[in-house]
Amino acid sequence: DKVTLTKLAAKVATFDFDQAELQDVLQYLRKTAGVRIYLNWRAAKSVGVDRSTKISVKLKKAKASAALRAALTAAAKPGQLTYAVGEGLVLISTPKDLKKLLPLASARPAAEADVDRALAGALEKNVLKLDFKEVELRDALQFLQEVTGTNMYISRAGLKAAGAKMSAPIRLHVTDVPARLALVLCLTEAADTGSLGYAAADGVLLISTPDGAKALAALINSRPQAAKTKQNLRVLKILSERIPTLHFNDVELKDVIQFLRDAAGLNIFMDWRSLRPAGLKESSPVNLHLKGGAFRTALHLTLADAAGQRVSPAGFIVEDGIIYISTPAGLKKLREAATQPTTAEAP
Known about the structure:
Layout: H1 2-9, E1 11-21, H2 22-33, E2 37-39, H3 41-45, E3 54-63, H4 64-75, E4 82-86, E5 89-93, H5 95-106, H6 114-123, E6 126-136, H7 137-148, E7 151-154, H8 156-161, E8 169-178, H9 179-190, E9 197-201, E10 204-208, H10 210-221, H11 230-240, E11 245-252, H12 253-264, E12 267-270, H13 272-275, E13 285-291, H14 295-307, E14 315-319, E15 322-326, H15 328-339
Parallel strand pairs: 2-5, 7-10, 12-15
Antiparallel strand pairs: 1-3, 4-5, 6-8, 9-10, 11-13, 14-15
């Protein structure tokens, strides 16, 4: 950031524009000042500014920072557009949006496990050039997934809460930025009414609202309750094993659970009586693409996706070698029933 601030403090020989488009003025600053500039056009639109907004500015030997402020003031009313420097970029948006964007841009995923440290390292890999012109969010994320070689889970509920769609057009032109920053900027472009962020758990990049991603990561990093019996320990071991590949496109929940039963050779009991009122039905669609995730991670993500919620309303415990899936209230009843001593009537 010091390098960028130094460049902004340098003077620009000429800054003379008459009814020029804002996007062209910013491009001129990029080249003459040697700075990387990102403007959140979606946020700018909320104050009546777009790429073709015409501005007139005439300055001589002004600092690049002063020229930038003059351009933004000419494009919108004073104070409606501002900028900050973060992660080596000049970030331009509304004050409200910048307040959300800056912490997201500088955040790093918590990485306690080896798989998450590897994921965090992959996100630091520089993307030499991003030139997205009306690229759909799904394609932008696919590109970043391929560049970093990471697993991604995209919460449909998280997208909905942030007013984003997989078909949202992404307009992003940046060079030589870490993949994590490119990801944040793509998510910022897509979110219309809220914020999108990410967290890491079990080597999977979880994309949702910032709070939703953290909550889902905490759930995945938790371990199911189970008494330390031989049967249960066998199940817990299998739950920690890696599943090679999962590809589910609108597959019904009951069929996904059956697939997981067959793939792992485990007994899974679905407490449908408790699950249905919580939004988990036999026919609930599951969209999940996962490579190399642990079985328990696949189970958590399956339930969250099927429920259409940022965090699943269901969980699971292991009892007598069986995985019981239900709501928290349902699991409490199942646990009590499993530990209840049995009695036999005298003949």
